[in-house]
Amino acid sequence: MRKRTLKAWAGALVAAALVVAPLMTAGATAAEPLEDGVGQTLPWTSETNHEDYWEDLYADHSAVCYKVEGANSSAHGTVSENKLTVTLKPFDPAWGADRHWELLVIKAGSDSNFVVRHPVAGVAYASPSNGNNDAEVSHWIVCKGTAPKPPVIVKPNLTIDCDAEGYITRSENVDWTPEVHDDGTTTWTARPILGTVFEEGVKVSWDVPSLEKLAEECEPSEQPEQPEPVKSESSKTTFDCASTTATVTTTTTTTPFVWDESTEKWVPGTPSSADVVNTRPLTQDELGDCPLVPGEIQSVCVGDVPYLGYQVTLPEGFVPDSANPVTITFVNPDGEDYVVADQPLSGALLWPGASDGEPKMWPGWDLVDGEYVETDGNFAWTRAGVTVEFDVNPTYTTVVEYPQAAALCANPPVGDDDPTTGTPTSTDAEALAVTGGGINPIVVAAGGAALVAGIAVVTIAAYRRRHASMQ
């Protein structure tokens, strides 16, 4: 604390009234932080006589200052009778619940101010001395303030912006300082403004090319006209023989051109596709690729003569070229096929190697010197299960078994039979006569005994061309 030397004529009175003031420290400036409650002697200037000087200095505390001229008291505080101290009154909550005494400035003499940060009410703060002599208060200033808000953390940023003035954009919440170099480049440095701080380690400096360079980079290049998108179409047709319809899916692929900044060229972009689906009836040619619909197909005996009994149906809607459109092919796995054309859709076909006239013949048999002998010729390959194709353009394929050996028509008569006529002498009830109404493809013996030796059950639809789908 700084002790005052009092004049003798006021000694007893003043000693009783004064409260000892805090020590004053010398050498500080107003720009330096002041210690709370400790008075400091600061240099006086004409600016320090004004309230706005201190309000600006403590703007972050929202300081509002009041000046009292001379050694006079006010609503905020009193000056002692000897005019050497100032004592603040208690802070009135009506002045602001969040406010307090921020600053007390006492002026005396002509050299300095006595300044107290966050002064305490009821404490007598002494005026600064004038040399070695006590000096009376010439004016005093008291400021009300608030506790400063925490600083706002900001992040400076600078970007090249061809649409901005000067081709750069700087964040507005900082103070920017440019430094122009001899090569035309500029270094921009950011500093925080009052009430803000930067994040630790944040970038605060940017080197920017010259204005001419920026203008050159930002000037739009002369682009050639954008080419028209490339379009391509592909179609896929799916055939449904059951519904006799074709489903056509047409896919259109569109590839736009996009500008490539690195090559400064138009290049193909990302293609997009769209499908259009249409359904239509099958054409005659397409119906021709559907399989024939099989009925009963098997070997049959008509008397002692073997036949192929068959029945096939055309795909719905298919119109044949003639009334007898069927070509029947016995497929020889080791040689030439046996083919019979111009056949009806159902009927009975004499088995290859067989004859229904004199002399009677059977496949795999030959007539030598009036006697039947087995041979590898005469279509013997049809006896062990033969593949038969029915073709009108629509095709159906199956395997038909030759009549079993016990069947009347399976083999020629041997032993007591008469080889000259080729007619068995047996009166077996299985012998059937040919009726005048033609040959039924499925012949059944009297009394219900079946003469059918083999039924087509082995291979179905083994030969189909595109009946499922085509591209």
Structure write-up:
The structure is a single chain. The chain has 471 residues and is mainly β. 6% of the residues lie in helices and 37% in strands. The protein has four helices and 31 strands. The radius of gyration is 61 Å and the shape is rod-shaped. Mean pLDDT is 80; it is low at 1-31 and 417-471.
- Based on Cα principal axes, name the global outline: rod-shaped
Q: What's the total number of strands? A: 31
Number of helices: 4
Radius of gyration: 61 Å
Structural class: mainly beta
Give the mean pLDDT: 80
Strand content: 35-45%
Unreliable spans: 1-31, 417-471
Helical residue percent band: under 10%
Please give a quick description of this structure.
This protein is mainly beta and 471 residues long. It has helices spanning 11-17, 51-57, 211-218, 284-287; strands at residues 39-43, 64-69, 77-79, 85-88, 99-108, 112-117, 124-126, 137-146, 152-154, 158-160, 168-170, 174-180, 186-192, 196-198, 205-208, 230-240, 245-255, 257-260, 265-268, 272-281, 293-294, 298-302, 305-313, 326-331, 338-343, 346-350, 365-368, 371-374, 386-391, 395-400, 469-470.
